[in-house]
Amino acid sequence: MRYQRIVVLTGAGISAESGLGTFRDEDGLWTKYDLEDVATPQGFARDPAFVHEFYNARRVNLRDAVPNAAHLALAELERRHPGRVLVVTQNVDDLHERAGSCNILHMHGELLKLRCESCGQVADWPGDLAIATPCPTCAVPGYVRPHVVWFGEMPFHMPKIELELAVCDLFVSIGTSGNVYPAAGFVAEVRRQGRAHTVELNLEPSEGASLFAEARLGPATTVVPAFVRELIEA
Ligand code: APR
After folding, report:
1. Are residues 31 and 139 in the same domain?
2. Is 108 one of the annotated active-site residues of the chain?
């Protein structure tokens, strides 16, 4: 194994073959919904019931989805890699967890969790959410929201992510269009530290494709297992 500290950034494309929609492909979520209405604090304040419906539908979708070969390959890499493997995911699904990955940071939050704006507590919540749903911790109704990062809000775990990017010797980006910061800026940060190899595994070149030292184009369920096999056998 040539690398000691591997950071893997994943986006919606790694879950596409599990049946979960991406955002910006031709049939993506943002072609069906205006992100201002369902993925901003202002949209939630305007019509919380509509936003809850949007995430309730995505939770139902997720219940029927299963991890694919790309999720499973990353979990195998974590199990068999003697060094450190960290998955930093923009995805709010739990497919990395269900595939067996343990070292995961959900920088955009988690669909199967809620957060109470009254007591601030985060709780597991796989079912439907509604405006009147009482917080499972403080029991106050009317203050729960999906524990998902909306546009204009700070992503989670950024200090830890920055530290890991600064010391990694392999940075792999999988299934992300490179449209949304700060994740889209991670490859430039890794290049600035000047030591790591950078690889993009994607269906098509992302916005940041030119910044990667290596690219392998194709569906995640093909390119990710092949790449992981090479890492493990190196
Ligand atoms: N295998 C690999 N890559 C794929 C596949 C696949 N089967 N299908 C699609 N892709 C690629 C697309 O080519 C695209 O580059 O996945 C990427 C999906 O891009 P987006 O839909 O923009 O999703 P993502 O990059 O994860 O979006 C980032 O934007 O809306 C916010 O919070 C949301 O986390 C999301 C963030």
Report:
1. yes
2. yes
pLDDT 10s digits, 185-207: 999 999 999 999 999 999 999 99
Q: Which residue range(s) make up the domain with 78?
A: 1-19+67-108+155-234
11 lines ligand 1 (CB under 6 A): yes
* HEC profile of the chain: CCCCEEEEEECHHHCHHHCCCCCCCCCCHHHHCCHHHHCCHHHHHHCHHHHHHHHHHHHHHHHCCCCCHHHHHHHHHHHHCCCEEEEEECCCCCHHHHHCCCCEEECCEEEEEEEECCCCCEEECCCCCCCCCECCCCCCECCEEEEECCCCCCCCCHHHHHHHHHHCCEEEEECCCCCCCCHHHHHHHHHHHCCCEEEEEECCCCCCHHHCCEEEECCHHHHHHHHHHHHHHC
Using the structure block, give the residue that is written with the tokens 């304040």.
45
Answer yes or no: do 35 and 94 share one domain: no
Q: Categorize the per-residue pLDDT at 234 as very low, low, confident or very high, splitting at 50, 70 and 90.
A: confident
Residue 96 Cβ contacting ligand 1 at under 6 Å: no
| Active-site pick, 108, 147, 157, 197 | 108
How much is the pTM? Answer: 0.97
Q: Give the total number of structural domains in the chain.
A: 2
- How would residue 170 be classed by pLDDT, with cut points 50, 70 and 90? very high
Q: Are residues 143 and 160 in the same domain?
A: no
Residues 136 and 59 both lie in one domain: yes
The answer to whether residues 232 and 121 belong to one domain is: no
Whether 1 has a pLDDT exceeding 80, the answer reads no
